[in-house]
Amino acid sequence: MALYRSVVVGTDGSESSFRAVERAAEVSGAAGATLYIATAYQQGAAAGGAAADALKGEAFQITGSTPAYEILRAATDRAKKAGAQNIEQRAIEGKNPVDALIDLVIGVKADLLVVGNRGLSSITGRLLGSVPSDVARRADIDVLIVHTV
Length: 149
Prior knowledge:
Pfam families: Usp. By secondary structure, this protein is of the alpha/beta class.
């Protein structure tokens, strides 16, 4: 029996997050597990405003559904090259990345959640929290935080 049967990885389209996708693909491919690649996005005007201004370069702001699907296509291509065999894509609208990943983990009964370490050592991450630290606290499964920056 494989250690991991389903692996979830989040991406925002950044090079850093694509490195986490590649590592998740290596792990899922070696285990024969299903890889779920997810990105969270906000539709239209809801994506802008004060949150986008406050985050500046600390997080990508994905607006509309087309950019999300382009990100998923690019991530899937990289995952295939890194060894993933069974890949499913999830574009999750209207949720912040942490909630989106945790809900997906629960929904697919994932065994492993993979995220990059971007934001862990930033001042914003220390004060407001970051995706890697927040999912590590909230997840009830193994979390692999990949050194991507």
